[in-house]
Write a structure and sequence with these properties.
The chain is α+β, with helices and mostly antiparallel strands. It folds into three domains: 45 residues; 192 residues, no CATH class; 46 residues. Helices cover 67% and strands 18% of the residues. It contains nine helices and five strands. Helix 3 packs across helix 6 and helix 6 runs antiparallel to helix 7. The N and C termini lie far apart (179 Å).
């Protein structure tokens, strides 16, 4: 029995060694395969591929406008676009318009448009739109109003565009950073198709950059120079019509007032009649009517019985 037991023990030991050796060889082979695969992949892949899709990816995972907005400092002063509308009565329309032009130009402003039209023979009205530095907006309004005999209407408004300007600044910085990255891809392009695709993306980005710059310039200039629109009416039209000392406007006003007074009087009488006189007449008149009628019937009955 012992020889057989020894034989079986030796056989089991040999089989165990063979199995262990096989597992180790399999692991080593798998490791070699993986290393070789990595080396082949690195050898095949180019250093940088200037593909437009990768450019779009850079835009996607780049810094967002919101992140830039938190980094872009706010302007020292808020950007507010101020506008004003004035309607004034002046002694001489054309002279007043010349004076407004001189006043605006002497303060580094300019006339946007000017229009003079004839209302009737010898009487002119006019409209003007001027731009003045925002720092002198209030002074310009006061100076124009000093030229007026009467200020009929004044309307001042302001629009705060600071938030929009900061947002545009963030978008501009983001687009410029992306455009610089795209230009680096253009230098590494190896094929004509790749160069054309990158160039098209670069043109699109530069177009968006120019649009944002134009909008920012518009907001900046609009906030730096305020707009004032002025309507000028000659004093002749503001005065009531008078013919030989007789003013039809005054007579018509007096007639309207008299009519209103008369209608008010009639309405007052009607109200008194309905609310006060009519109920009182009913309360007093009905008993009197029944009493008189009863008396008449008694008298008639007395005459019949006497005859």
């Amino acid at each position: 029995m012992k020889p057989k037991l020894v034989q079986w023990s030796v056989l089991i030991l040999v089989l165990s060694m063979i199995i262990l050796a096989g597992c180790q060889s399999s692991q080593e082979a798998q490791t070699l395969i993986e290393e070789r695969t990595v080396l082949e992949t690195e050898a095949v892949a180019p250093a940088e591929a200037p593909v437009v899709k990768s450019v779009a990816g850079d835009v996607a995972f780049g810094t967002t406008s919101a992140e830039f907005a938190s980094q872009v400092p706010l302007p020292e002063t808020r950007l507010i676009i101020r506008t004003a509308e004035l309607s004034i009565v002046v002694t001489d329309t054309e002279e007043a318009m010349r004076e407004i032009t001189r006043l605006v130009e002497s303060n580094e402003g300019w006339v946007v448009n000017s229009n003079v039209y004839q209302v009737r023979e010898g009487v002119m009205s006019g409209d003007m739109t001027v731009r003045v530095p925002a720092t002198g907006f209030g002074n310009a309004l006061d100076a124009i109003k000093l030229l007026a005999v009467e200020v009929e209407q004044e309307n001042i408004s302001g629009q705060d565009v600071t938030e929009e300007y900061v947002d545009l600044s963030a978008r501009l910085e983001n687009l410029e950073a992306t455009a610089d990255r795209v230009r680096s891809f253009l230098d590494d392009a190896q094929k004509v198709e790749e160069a054309l695709a990158v160039n098209a993306e670069l043109s699109r980005l530069e177009g968006e950059i120019e649009v944002i710059k134009g909008r920012m310039q518009y907001l900046s200039q609009s906030a730096a120079y305020s707009t004032i629109s002025v309507h000028l009416t000659p004093d002749v039209l503001a005065q009531p019509l008078e013919i030989g000392g007789w003013r039809p406007e005054g007579v018509a006003r007096d007639a309207v007032e008299a009519l209103v007074d008369t209608l008010q009087g009639l309405a007052t009488v009607l109200i008194w009649l309905v609310i006060y006189v009519l109920p009182l007449a009913i309360l007093i008149g009905l008993p009197l009517w029944f009493g008189i009628r009863w008396g008449v019937r008694r008298r008639q009955q007395g005459r019949v019985s006497g005859s």
